[in-house]
Amino acid sequence: MFKAANAVQIRVSIDEIEPEVWRRLVLPVHWNLEHLHLGIQAAFNWWNYHLYEFRIGGLRYGDVETLTEDATDDDPRVFDQREVRLLDFEQGAVFIYHYDFGDGWRHTLAVEEFLTLASPPKQGSCIAGERARPPEDVGGVRL
């Protein structure tokens, strides 16, 4: 008998840093991108006070009101992050999370596996990772 997945395992790494800084997260499949943002913030111990967006298939997802506040007609459209759930992705999907547009922290996310856990997760968990993240407001990778 088929049991639907109730969790997803996602690997998140910060780009352009060697040695690599990464985390492996197990999250409820019903979470949307806004929840994923908060899970990434917690896993990396970011302070969650900068703008962010997701880039999926060339499209921008985030807080529409915040990201379009100063937008011009030339800026790409922003789609609502609450409309995309983790269960909408396929195993193997890769996409981008930008945090702190000033410092430019770019994270690559890879959907590793959908899981059927005995007890559906109510919150996210960081189950693995390596190295501490860079300090906030340090100016990014390229100084």
TrEMBL record:
Pfam families recorded: PRiA4_ORF3
Plasmid pRiA4b Orf3-like domain location: 7-141
Official protein name in the record: Plasmid pRiA4b Orf3-like domain-containing protein
Organism: Rhizobium giardinii
